[in-house]
UniProtKB/TrEMBL annotation:
SMART domains: TPK_B1_binding. InterPro entries: Thi_PPkinase (IPR006282), Thiamin_PyroPKinase_B1-bd (IPR007373), TPK (IPR053149), TPK_B1-bd_sf (IPR036371), TPK_catalytic (IPR007371), TPK_catalytic_sf (IPR036759). Keywords: ATP-binding, Kinase, Nucleotide-binding, Transferase. This is Thiamine diphosphokinase. The keyword Transferase applies. Its EC number is 2.7.6.2. GO terms for molecular function: ATP binding; kinase activity; thiamine binding; thiamine diphosphokinase activity. GO terms for biological process: thiamine diphosphate biosynthetic process; thiamine metabolic process. It comes from the Bacteria. It is an enzyme of class 2 (transferase). Residues 145-211 form the Thiamin pyrophosphokinase thiamin-binding domain. The lineage of its organism: Bacteria, Bacillati, Bacillota, Bacilli, Bacillales. The gene is thiN. It holds the Pfam family TPK_catalytic. It comes from Lysinibacillus sphaericus (Bacillus sphaericus).
Amino acid sequence: MTTVVVCAGGPKEELCSLESYSKQHDVLFIGADRGALYLIEQGITPHAIVGDFDSLSQEEYQNVMKHAQDAQRFREEKNETDTDLALLKALTYAPREIVLTGVTGGRLDHYEAAVRSIYRLQLEHPNLVLKIINHANTIQFLVPGTHTIQADERYRYLSFFAHEQAIQGVTLRHVKYETTNEEISLGSTRFTSNEIIGTSGSISFTQGICLMIRSID
């Protein structure tokens, strides 16, 4: 029952709060390139670090290596991104959840690559929880079925979008705007900014892939 937090090297101000994860005993940390330095600066020793480390100065690289328990350095010319390599490393721990942070803000191509990686891995591992989290949002792909969504004061607003194809048979319960057997069509914004009523809400659907975004006020 392990959570793996993968910290990439995007803008530092975009990171999610790492403090809450660092206090949990069943959380492992992986630093992707400059993300390893971000972890160390917050007093967190990465369980593993991966990447080509082209974003680090020689001094920063040496500092990271001093704290490395498991370090893998790759050539700059490679097919995978540093984030991809870190996600693949995370899978080796057989976690129940992977949290990816440090991929929002800054370069949009890096963000888009991270979203596509999470999407691909979610399809390959439907029982694994994969999330992108920054200081204000969580992003997650949902596969067909029923999903319970716990209320969280940090993320008041709840939005659903169709990804690649329309979502069929959408039923929302214990939220401000409930639906029964509806469709979320591609390009639709109708299911934006819902709110959970009580301790948890739920979404169920029969077909399609749902992109769920939870946001702060």
